[in-house]
Amino acid sequence: MASIMLTAMPFAGHARPIRAVAAELVRRGHDVRVYTGRSYVAMFEEVGARGVPWQAAPDFDERNYAATFPRMQERKGFRQVLVNLEDLFLGTAPAQLTDLLGAHREEPWDLLAGDTMAMGTRFAAEHVGGPWATVSPIAVWLPGKDIPPTGLGLTPAKGPLGRLRDLVLGAGARAGTRALTRLYQRTRREAGLAPDDETFATMWYSPQLVVAAGAPGLDYPRADLPPHIRFVGDLTDDGGAPPATALPEWWDDVAGADVPVVHVTQGTANVDPRDLILPTLEALADREVLVVVGLGHRTPPLPGPLPANARVAAMVPYPHLLPRTAAVVTNGGYGGVLQALRHDVPLVVAGGDLDKPEIAARVGWHGAGVNLRTGTPRPAAVARAVDRVLRDPVYREAAARLGAELRSLGGTRAAADLLEAHLP
After folding, report:
1. Which of 271, 309, 305 is nearest to 292 (CA)?
2. Beta partners for residue 301, in sequence order
3. Reading across the β-sheet that carries 50-53, which strands appear in turn?
4. Sheet with 347-349: strands ordered across
5. Which among 84, 44, 47 is positioned nearest to 68, based on CA atoms?
6. For residues 200 and 180, is the Cβ–Cβ distance under 8 A?
């Protein structure tokens, strides 16, 4: 039995995949602690891990970031992304370090394995020494040769003009992130660490091992992926489907549907229903489909009466829903995209900001769905995209191809295998 410390940022889209990894490690007999926000401690303890709550780090409610970080408003766009990085991800890292060093003094660990965005993990690993790994529930798509610069939602270009485009935009992207790299270096100094050679693109990851959700086939073709980055497919609980009691009261409408079921979700981060859920309901109101809306735990109640062909719930268990789903309309949250593809379901993706334009671009480029190229599509655009995905079998065939690859990579079991192999 080994002592393993995991870290998980207190976001639903991060905590749930890392809980699945924690559960698998506990099942194998390891003593697993998880450093996370107080609101997620119980979720990890349910699977047998020991919760270590944020203390020095300013704990927060993901339903109201601004209460803890006043500059973090419910806004979108590059400037707001910068504020999020400065105040939340880098801003809390020195305090995360304080918490983690305290936990290590109290009870040393054999392996530290951290959430990509929990920057305190890197700092603690450098202070303590020993093996450490990144467990990434989000996409790991590093800059590389012969691919467009990451962050702009571009697909690969061909020919001399395409290569020139990528060179120019790549130089611009590097220049645009230098300020963030400098902020990272200042944060290192606050944490009592010397400068290093990491950039904004690489500072999130362990140089020893990165256990990454996803699959190589979902990225663009490349030959320069570092060997310590290991893709493991979909990091989802493998303990079986939730009980029938977790299903909404209208579930029989789905189980007995004689029309295609279309699921729409905005995930758990950007949850203004005017962005995607309401346009999708309007777009499909007169279509012969059954629309299943997953609101998540942050979305406010939808205004006005629902179309007759729509059903709504806070959460609809995916092991029950996705095998019955013909298409998923999504804002591009990585976990939901991977689960849809693992069930061979094609997608319509409205990727607005953060990593979502990159996810949308890759789904479209691989033919597994339609990239709407905006996070706030018009109803007519959603209707056209859903019609294409439902009518043309090539989308489901491409989704099935990616799904087969995701399933072959082993999921949480493969993640646990890699972490065990990294133990001293």
Report:
1. 309
2. none
3. 50-53, 31-36, 3-7, 111-115, 132-136, 210-212, 229-231
4. 310-313, 290-294, 261-265, 327-330, 347-349, 369-371
5. 84
6. yes
**Pair of tokens at residue 34:** 């998880």
**Domain boundaries defined on the chain:** 3-237+409-421, 244-407
Report how far Cα 247 is from the mean position of its chain's Cα atoms.
24
**pLDDT tens, 331-381?**
999 999 999 999 999 999 998 877 899 999 999 999 999 999 999 999 999
Q: Which of 119, 173, 164 is nearest to 141 (CA)?
A: 173
CB 375 within 8 A of CB 276: yes
Whether residue 236 contacts residue 17, with contact meaning beta carbons closer than 8 Å, is answered with yes
Q: What mean pLDDT is reported for the chain?
A: 90
CATH code: domain 3-237+409-421 is 3.40.50.2000
> Is residue 292 within a helix (H) or strand (E), and if so which, with residue range?
strand 290-294
DSSP string, 346-401: -EEE---STTHHHHHHHHHHTTSEEE-SSSS--HHHHHHHHHHHHH-HHHHHHHHH
The whole-angstrom separation of Cα 17 and Cα 411 is 10
Contacts 24+ apart (CB under 8 A), 55-58: 55/99, 55/102, 56/95, 56/96, 56/98, 56/99, 56/102, 57/92, 57/95, 57/96, 57/98, 57/99, 57/120, 58/92, 58/95
User: CA-to-CA distance for 6 and 235, rounded, in angstroms?
Assistant: 15
The span from the CA of 367 to the CA of 347, in Å, is 10
From CA 402, how far away is CA 12, in angstroms rounded? Answer: 24
Domains 3-237+409-421 and 244-407 alike in fold: yes
Going by their DSSP bridges, the two strands 3-7 and 111-115 should be labelled as: parallel
Model pTM score? 0.92
**What are the tens digits of pLDDT across the range 50-62?**
999 999 999 887 7
- Count of beta carbons in the 10 Å neighbourhood of residue 343: 21
In whole angstroms, what is the distance from residue 94 CA to residue 268 CA? 26
Residue for token pair 């379901």: 345
CATH superfamily of 244-407: Glycogen Phosphorylase B; (3.40.50.2000)
CA gyration radius for the chain? Answer: 21
| Cβ–Cβ < 8 Å for 113, 4 | yes
